[in-house]
């Protein structure tokens, strides 16, 4: 039988693995595990921002060098030890978090402008109610490209606004 696979020793391909059905003693590799997602608390974000503020002299044009991010990771590990609920904050993750916080800063800065049409407060948010919900929807959906990062601040504040403002190269320039 030319079309039969009976007795074939050809490999089967399943999920990118090569398996020989005749070799039952060759165990499959262990299933892939995914790293636990890193969750940052407001307190941890504050710890990172305080550390960066204390090392601001090492930044050039608002960017910190790799050595500073490595030191930030060590600082985070010392101040927020690993636990079941607290994953490792590596240098790369610290840098990513700072970039994300800067995005949030710029979104909130736009909300604070009179032109946005919203009264924004760092503690209480944009305070969107039924009266201005349609305007908010237009702001974050229709004007999506310009204001997509504002969405989380509909009814939650941004406590790190002032801390990040102090870390930006434009602070104090006018």
TrEMBL record:
<protein>
    <recommendedName>
        <fullName>Myb/SANT-like DNA-binding domain-containing protein</fullName>
    </recommendedName>
</protein>
<dbReference type="InterPro" id="IPR044822">
    <property type="entry name" value="Myb_DNA-bind_4"/>
</dbReference>
<dbReference type="Pfam" id="PF13837">
    <property type="entry name" value="Myb_DNA-bind_4"/>
</dbReference>
<feature type="domain" description="Myb/SANT-like DNA-binding">
    <location>
        <begin position="39"/>
        <end position="109"/>
    </location>
</feature>
């Amino acid at each position: 039988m030319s079309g039969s696979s009976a007795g074939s020793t050809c490999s089967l391909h399943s999920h990118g693995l090569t398996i020989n059905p005749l070799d039952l003693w060759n165990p499959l590799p262990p299933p892939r595990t995914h790293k636990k997602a890193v969750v940052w608390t407001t307190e941890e974000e504050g710890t990172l921002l305080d550390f960066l503020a204390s090392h601001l002299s090492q930044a050039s044009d608002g960017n910190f060098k790799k050595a500073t991010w490595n030191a930030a990771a060590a600082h985070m590990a010392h101040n927020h030890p690993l636990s079941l609920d607290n994953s490792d904050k590596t240098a790369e993750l610290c840098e990513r978090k700072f970039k994300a916080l800067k995005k949030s800063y710029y979104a909130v800065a736009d909300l604070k402008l009179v032109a946005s049409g919203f009264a924004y407060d760092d503690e209480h948010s944009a305070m969107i109610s039924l009266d201005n919900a349609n305007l908010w929807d237009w702001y974050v959906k229709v004007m999506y490209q310009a204001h997509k990062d504002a969405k989380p601040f509909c009814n939650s504040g941004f406590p790190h606004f002032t801390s990040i403002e102090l870390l930006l190269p434009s602070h104090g320039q006018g």
